[in-house]
Predict the 3D structure of the following.
Amino acid sequence: MQMGLDFNLVEDLVAGVDEVGRGPLCGAVVTAAVILDPNRPILGLNDSKKLTEAKREALFDEICEKALSFCIARAEVEEIDRLNILQATMLAMQRAVEGLHVTPKLALIDGNRCPKLAVPAAPVVKGDSQVPAIAAASILAKVTRDREMSAFELIYPGYGIGGHKGYPTPVHLEALARLGPTPIHRRSFAPVRAAWEAREGFSSSLI
């Protein structure tokens, strides 16, 4: 469906949709949908991963102020473990689009597949670097999730969550093996499952 779309000439009331958090071992997957206002342009929109934290934070506030509509949604750890990460991501994207207070004429989804939506949709590979509305969605999702991970650093010290944001870095994997999983860890992910089983085996050996 994305073939033939001119991203510079796409009509208004187009929602950009993106996610953050498919790869981490802990925390929710966070999605956002954004309909930009063509009369209130936002300069500097880009793939959130290519922006500094300070720039993302500044753009977050500007997007929330100037967008025609936006919605930040999520799928929780329990849903990820129950559905699998792909289906949980699709569910979170559905929630983001359905949460818009303006109905888009088209939803452009970052990636190579679309969730089931009540409006027309098309996938856009690397859309966060091509479509401003998707870039805006990626910024809202990333800033939201990064803030949550920083808060979890205080609740679950010792894992370095505020630094690695839940991704499977050596620091995270070492802490997971040493301290065991927390309630926000995804038990359906292999490293977490292994740490959980090792912990359970250790507890059983003490009985």
Residues 6-10, 202-207 have pLDDT under 50 and may be disordered. Strands lie at 14-20, 29-35, 69-75, 106-110, 121-124. The chain has two domains: 14-154, 156-205. The two ends are 59 Å apart (CA to CA).
